[in-house]
Amino acid sequence: MDLNLPPKVTDRAFARLAEINDGGDTKVLRVAVEGGGCSGFQYEITLDKVAEGDLVIEGAGQKVVVDEVSLPFLSNAVIDFSDELIGARFVIDNPNATSSCGCGTSFSM
């Protein structure tokens, strides 16, 4: 596992963030990893602002940020947006995860 590769953000995720920010205060999408969940770690995805030390990924006039502590857990991950019958949400395809739960928000390494 190469912990030096930044996560990638799809055009679809940037487009959805642009829709969220349309006509309001521009927020960044913060993707973090915290201890907990049914598999050991869980993703926390929130609208926030850039903080010191964040990795900032830009596209389509939007920003996605990852804090320094979460960055090794998200190395080479892909942040996407999924809009399916079961719901619409930001999703993470994480090659570092050895297993994940059925809901997709919890994983182990």
UniProtKB/TrEMBL annotation:
Protein name: Iron-sulfur cluster assembly accessory protein
Membrane-spanning ranges: none
Alphabetical list of Pfam families matching this protein: Fe-S_biosyn
GO MF: 2 iron, 2 sulfur cluster binding; 4 iron, 4 sulfur cluster binding; iron ion binding
GO BP of this protein: iron-sulfur cluster assembly
Organism: Profundibacter amoris
NCBIfam families referenced in this protein's UniProt entry, alphabetically: iron-sulfur cluster assembly accessory protein (TIGR00049)
InterPro entries hit by this protein: ATAP (IPR016092), ATAP_core_dom (IPR000361), FeS_cluster_insertion_CS (IPR017870), HesB-like_dom_sf (IPR035903)
Domain Core: 8-104
Gene3D superfamilies: HesB-like domain
